[in-house]
Amino acid sequence: MRLVFVSPYFYPAWQYGGTPRAAYELARALARRGHQLTVFTTDSAGVSRLDNDGRGAPFTRQFDGLEAHYYPNVSNWLAFKHRIFLPLGMSRSIRATLKNSDVVHIHEFRSMLTIQAWCEAKRLGLPYVISPHGGLQYLGKAIPKRIFDRLWGRRVLGKAAAVAVVSHIESEDAADFNVHPSRIHLLPNPIPVEQFETLPPLGT
Question: Which residues touch 56 (CB under 8 Å, ≥6 apart)?
């Protein structure tokens, strides 16, 4: 299958916590299974390519059997401090890639990238999966989150082919958004088992 991941942060942006690592491990596992995997993300890891004028420019990297496209944020300070991701020039590329794809998997819920991917998937009639990664609850910044949900969030969840939750608690959170139980699927965070093949002595 031709799969597209859309995430505001991806490898090697480990400073953003578990979400980019979970998305990366899932992406490379799917690539190992033979799927064609393309990732759209931002330069939130602090790694960027400069164009001839010294400005941030989109760039592509290939690793672990997948292809990742990184787009510069308007401000990585806004991205890290306030989770406001505004990538430059991404919409047109997403549109062109999704035309030849089978499924888009959106990581994170309340993000401008989520809106971009949702709009393009809806326009093309393309099924999409969304992984909120524990982000459905109103823990901090409740007012902006409720505004987002009223404008976009509930429609994004309501039209998703599947909502991938990491726990039974998040399954209940999705149900609170009126997502039908048949579209809620438990997908725990993937673990790179090869890191645990050689263990220290018991009790260490």
Answer: 43, 48, 49, 50, 72, 88
